[in-house]
């Protein structure tokens, strides 16, 4: 790695608009949206880090890459990490970090002028996380590709991208971070046990979430943010009623958002905590955010409101570069 060349990888987080778990349950549609709340990894030239504890992602990603890229040193280079996404919030900030580490380390370990294909980066990041959490690949595709994706799930391997769309420029995403953390590992273990047992609640959830995903994608295609909000509310109800993925606190925050700002919210990710997301017109966003923040200030001081733009799709980014 040249000390003159700064290596930096910035990766967006993602909101799941509908279809949690369908990306790895072996069928069904899910809808993801990349959010411009990036996690950034910067390689520090000339410095290395000790191989640290088992939960040290830089060390583990570097070890994974040493088995695939020749000539890597025993110790990973030092990195600086910054993230605009709240941690353990259902917005895939951990996957964004892992993809950013793979991108930065692959560039640091490649000869000048050579580049590891993006498809390999995404596949490796998925394999790395699957070995640890046994989950799906929606997050890896969502943060790597950007934009909105309609995905077809598979029991193992990255889901298939059925369609891609750019999120409307005149819409905004409103994130309500509940201040409570979610636990993906226990959630995935529980749902896999349901799948093995043929649980009827899981079957009902899969069918309803798939229908909600179809409605959400139709709303995106039609640029109808109210229809999208209704589809997201339908997806949330399926998560809550069939799979118990909501909590009393999350439901209270949803009710408060409807009363204070008329904004339907949906939990993003495995549930049990984390963040809720809603969509509104860009022109309305400042007022929506202000009313929500004011309503939360007294009863829920640990919650916060984060306005966000969608992160553009990779095809749009390439077009901008070539323009």
UniProtKB/TrEMBL annotation:
Query: What's a single GO BP term from this record?
Result: isopentenyl diphosphate biosynthetic process, mevalonate pathway
Q: Pathway of this protein?
A: Isoprenoid biosynthesis; isopentenyl diphosphate biosynthesis via mevalonate pathway; isopentenyl diphosphate from (R)-mevalonate: step 1/3
The chain positions of domain GHMP kinase C-terminal read 219-296
The GHMP kinase N-terminal domain is annotated at 78-147
Q: Which GO terms describe its molecular function?
A: ATP binding; mevalonate kinase activity
Q: Which Pfam families match?
A: GHMP_kinases_C, GHMP_kinases_N
Instruction: Tell me yes or no: is Nucleotide-binding among this UniProt entry's keywords.
Output: yes
Q: Which UniProt keywords apply?
A: ATP-binding, Cytoplasm, Kinase, Lipid biosynthesis, Lipid metabolism, Magnesium, Nucleotide-binding, Transferase
Q: Which GO terms describe its cellular component?
A: cytosol
InterPro entries to which the protein is assigned, alphabetical: GHMP_kinase_C_dom, GHMP_kinase_C_sf, GHMP_kinase_N_dom, HddA/FKP, Mev_gal_kin, Ribosomal_Su5_D2-typ_SF, Ribsml_uS5_D2-typ_fold_subgr
Q: What is this protein called?
A: Galactokinase
From what organism does this protein derive? Streptomyces sp. Y1
Q: What is the lineage of its organism?
A: Bacteria, Bacillati, Actinomycetota, Actinomycetes, Kitasatosporales
């Amino acid at each position: 790695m040249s000390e003159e060349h700064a290596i930096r990888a910035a990766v967006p987080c993602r909101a799941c608009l509908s279809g949690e778990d369908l990306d790895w349950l072996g069928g069904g549609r899910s809808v993801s949206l990349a959010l411009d709340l990036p996690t950034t990894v910067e390689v520090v030239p000339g410095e290395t880090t000790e191989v640290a504890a088992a939960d040290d992602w830089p060390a583990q990603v570097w070890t994974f890459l040493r088995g695939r890229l020749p000539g890597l040193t025993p110790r990973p280079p030092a990195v600086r990490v910054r993230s605009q996404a709240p941690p353990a919030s259902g917005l895939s900030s951990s996957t964004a970090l892992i993809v950013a580490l793979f991108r930065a380390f692959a560039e640091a370990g490649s000869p000048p002028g050579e580049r590891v294909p993006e498809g390999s980066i995404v596949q490796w990041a998925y394999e790395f996380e699957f070995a640890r959490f046994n989950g799906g690949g929606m997050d890896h595709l969502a943060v790597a590709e950007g934009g909105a994706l309609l995905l077809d799930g598979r029991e193992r391997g990255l889901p298939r991208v059925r369609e891609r769309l750019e999120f409307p420029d005149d819409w905004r995403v409103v994130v309500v971070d509940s201040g409570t953390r979610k636990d993906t590992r226990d959630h995935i273990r529980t749902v896999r046990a349901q799948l093995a047992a043929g649980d009827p609640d899981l079957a009902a959830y899969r069918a309803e979430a798939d229908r909600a995903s179809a409605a959400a994608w139709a709303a995106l295609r039609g640029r109808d943010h109210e229809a999208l909000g209704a589809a997201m509310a339908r997806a949330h109800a399926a998560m809550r009623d069939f799979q118990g993925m909501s909590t009393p606190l999350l439901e209270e925050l949803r009710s408060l958002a409807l009363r204070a700002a008329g904004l339907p919210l949906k939990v993003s990710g495995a549930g049990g905590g984390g963040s809720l997301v809603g969509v509104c017109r860009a022109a309305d966003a400042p007022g929506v955010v202000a009313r929500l923040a004011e309503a939360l200030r007294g009863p829920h001081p640990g919650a916060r409101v984060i306005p966000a733009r969608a992160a553009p799709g990779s095809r749009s980014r390439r077009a901008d570069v070539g323009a």
